Amino acid sequence: MKLCWLVVLAFAGTCGLALDGRAAEALRLDEAVARALDASPLLAAEAAALRAADSRAAREALSTPLTIGGELENFAGTGALSGTRLAETTFRVGKRIELGGKQAARRALGQTHVLRQRNTAALARADVIALTSLRFIQVLADQARLAAAKERTAFASKARNEVARWVQAGRNPDSDLAAADITLADAELSEEHAAHELLASRQTLAASWGGVEVDFAEVAGDLEGPTTLPNFDSLAARLAHTPGQRAHALEAEELSAQRALAHAMRRPDVDLSLGVRRLQGLDDQGLVMSVSVPLGSKVRSTLAVAEADALLAASAARADAARSERHQELFEVFQELNHAAVEQAALSSRMLPRARQALTLSQQGFEQGRFTFLALSQAQRTLFDLRVRQIQAAALLRSRLIQIERLTTSTTDITP
């Protein structure tokens, strides 16, 4: 299996062993992608379509078949022609002789059908890889959000117990205990929400390989590890070699092959037959040969060529439009990638350390009676809100990397 998701695989830590007991071990990205590729109904359908295209191309490349036929004349009539005494029996063998290179043109056209279907299968393979990778990152992010929510709940529970002691000792008002209860309840609700979000994303990931039940404990990967951002010009240069762009080139090749076949139709075919005729009345037999050539082939060929030329012009225009749109899409995703990288860096290096420091100082001040519980609660909420933002930025960064890889991957990168 050739996968060109090197950046994503690096962050996911996929250098471990393959999973034997899937439900007992953490699922890695390469394992998830391999399972999806192996079990995808879409890829199975595209493989069947490719076999059909191969068979069709082989059939179209065959020469015209022989034909056999017979005639019985001058029998069961009236007078001398009653019965079969003067009947004439003919047996013929015929064949259409193709002129103008039609068989070679059909063979070339069939090969373009095969190449287009092979490219369609490559596109489907890229889609399966990208979709599974995006779902994997969603699970990884939901795991991190649930861990952060549990940490917040534990902190809120501890703070609530401390407030209860201070209220019982008469140092803090009853309103602080009510506020602490609300904070704890809010944290528990956030944890419950994160838990069911994780359940949903795990089920969605399992659906990538047709699973109706989740058969893995968790996913493994470093969501927030360092990432080297690609260069935009290098990415844009890869757009010319993607399966999507190749699809337009193959469409043009198919239309050119159709044009060549239409041009070959200018020369009419010759229907030739040779047979033996027996004349019952003379008790003799002789050879019979016939030749026929259809008329009007040049006019039909001219119209078919004109149709192919118009379709080629339309295909070229669509290719230009798609090239422009794909470049714009890449630019937009690349900007989102850079923004996510900047946000993650700011959260990790500046905002979260200060938020942790603020929470520590607030907790110390609260324990010393200098700060209210409201100040402590606000510091705690700020820290965990920033933590969730950091997870979201990291997940967005990895997701945009996958989208960029999907937009710029070449056919050879995703061909098994």
What does it look like?
The protein has helices at residues 6-12, 29-39, 41-60, 102-168, 174-207, 232-237, 243-264, 297-367, 373-408, and strands at 66-73, 88-97, 270-279, 284-292. A 4-stranded antiparallel β-sheet has the order 1-2-3-4, with no helix packed on it. Helix content is 66%, strand content 9%. Helix 3 (41-60) packs antiparallel against helix 4, helix 4 (102-168) runs antiparallel to helix 5 (174-207) and helix 4 packs antiparallel against helix 7 (243-264). Strand 3 and strand 4 form a beta hairpin. The protein is built from 9 helices and 4 strands; from the N terminus they run αααββααααββαα. The protein starts with 5 loop residues before the first helix and ends in an 8-residue tail after the last helix. By secondary structure, the protein is an alpha+beta fold.
What secondary-structure arrangement, pairings included, does this model have?
Blueprint: H1 6-12, H2 29-39, H3 41-60, E1 66-73, E2 88-97, H4 102-168, H5 174-207, H6 232-237, H7 243-264, E3 270-279, E4 284-292, H8 297-367, H9 373-408
Antiparallel strand pairs: 1-2, 2-3, 3-4
